[in-house]
Amino acid sequence: MTPAAPEPISPRSPRVSAARRLAKRNFRGKDRLFLAEGPQAVREAAGHRAADGATLVELFATPDAAKRYADIVGQARDAGARVHLADEDVIADISTTVTPQGLVGVCRFLDTPFDEILDAAPRLVAVLAHVRDPGNAGTVLRCADAAGAEAVVLTDASVDLYNPKAVRASVGSLFHLPVAVGVPVERAVAGLKEAGVRILAADGAGDRDLDDELDEGTMGGPTAWVFGNEAWGLPQETRALADAVVRVPIHGKAESLNLATAAAVCLYASARAQRAVGGCRSVTPG
Predict the structure, then answer these.
(1) CB contact at 8 A, 234 and 273
(2) Is the alpha carbon torsion for 210, 212, 215, 221 positive or negative?
(3) What is the model's pTM?
(4) Radius of gyration of the chain (CA)
(5) How, if at all, do strands 103-108 and 56-61 pair?
């Protein structure tokens, strides 16, 4: 049987208004919904399912995008999402990007309680403490996903996980691994330590060098990296909570590394050390 065509929607529809307001954090928190824009994010959202049901609940698509990405529209429909055909002006009204790609999904919040992350005994975790830039947060999440981390934790002083810029910067990784939000940094560190995870604070002024950590074989066990605000780094009180404060060595003339680049270096260093100890952790098909 041929599936029914997506239903057209009026620009004045309450559904459009409800989706548009998700650009603002207070409405996202009230509705516990957020926007996923573009084919990659919508595809990942359609394929994600939480314990309480499907993550993608609604999809707006231009006629052209509905044809071009018919497989994604079908996947969204199969996931139980309501699919609407919308003209480009409606999509532009909902979207938070300058050049929308014709697909905007409405998704349920999917953050994971911090205690569930601890119960899963993670071996590699990224903790974002005081990270305020949504692009940085999303990119670090993407790096953590690529490095094989089992979880990401955003402290209560960090940016909203569901900020549209953070969602876009994660390039779908938001839907791949557990993320806890709003966790006080002290609780995050204490909980991870109790779970047997070593805490390393990444800081350009650290007294330990990442190369030395690798050479001395200290990074093979469960590890959580704490990353701070790119502009001013980690506060002294946060650095004091860590088992070690580690700097990424600068061998050339660069003044420093940006947050996402430093995070990628640190997370991949841990992933490599852990593979050497416990076997390959890669999930890339061979």
Answers:
(1) no
(2) negative
(3) 0.89
(4) 20
(5) antiparallel
